[in-house]
Amino acid sequence: MPLRTLLCYGDSNTHGTRPMTQPGVLERFGWDERWTGVLARGLGHDWRLIEEGLPARTTVHDDPIDGHHKNGLSYLRPCLESQLPVDVLILMLGTNDLKARLSMTPADIASALQVLLEEIGRCNAGPDGGQPKLIVMAPAPIEEVGFLGEIFVGGAAKSRELAARYRQVAAAQGAAFVDAGEIIRVSPVDGVHFAADQHLRLGEHLVGVVRAAASA
Q: What residue spans define the domains of the chain?
């Protein structure tokens, strides 16, 4: 069987950022600790996993503080076209849309997810010019604690509405769906990022999800 490609497109929780205790200091879990690394190990050598996680990446928005390059839509097509053919794509974005400065409602964030999925559909980046198998992952709900709590004011309540909305969007687009909040929890240290044991749990869970999506 030819080597298959899995693209994981997301933000700092795909990057593997450790729970933060102070602004501007980004530390990263090792490859074998990140959920992407755990997933790659579980899938085995017939898979090539591409980890495309950018801290502070949004769905479709230029961030007025962190920069226009944080816009997940603007880089999505170049990423897909540079890595094609992509057999399976895991998309987990939306946490950074919860920042107070972006003023996004849960409905807005779900609509932005749909924009991303429609863009993927236009790219024809799957095998033989088709579409990758899609897995939409709703991010785990956040908590407003630590210094990040001031950035995400009001975001915790909104985050608890995302899974149901993401599930509807995924179904309408023919994508598989995973609710990360049913599997893991964010760290109580900063309320946004995952601790190492949660990365392990998520990565192990996704092995079966990816195999099922690939064979669907």
A: 4-215
Backbone φ, ψ for residue 58 (5° rounding): -100, 180
pLDDT digits (tens, 9 = 90+) for 161-170: 999 999 999 9
H/E run at residue 156: helix 155-159
pLDDT 10s digits, 80-121: 999 999 999 999 999 999 999 999 999 999 999 999 999 999
Q: Tokens 């400065």, residue?
A: 101
Judge whether 19 and 195 are in contact, CB under 8 Å: yes
pLDDT in tens, 121-146: 999 999 999 999 999 999 999 999 99
What stretches of 18-105 show up as alpha helix (H) in DSSP? Answer: 35-43, 72-83
Strand ranges in the chain using DSSP code E only, listed in sequence order: 4-10, 47-53, 88-92, 133-138, 176-179
- Would you call 67 helix, strand, or coil by DSSP? strand
Is pTM, for the whole model, over 0.90?
A: yes
CA neighbours within 13 Å on the CB side: how many for 157? 5
CATH fold, domain 4-215, is: Rossmann fold (3.40.50)
Compute the CA torsion angle 144, 39, 15, 184 (nearest 10 deg). Answer: 0
Which two three-digit tokens encode residue 24? 């501007």
Torsions phi, psi for 53 (to 5 deg): -115, 125
Q: Specify the DSSP element, H or E, that contains 211.
A: helix 196-215
Continuous segment of H or E residues that includes residue 12: helix 12-15
Cα four-point dihedral sign 16, 20, 26, 30? negative
For residue 70, list its beta bridge partners.
none
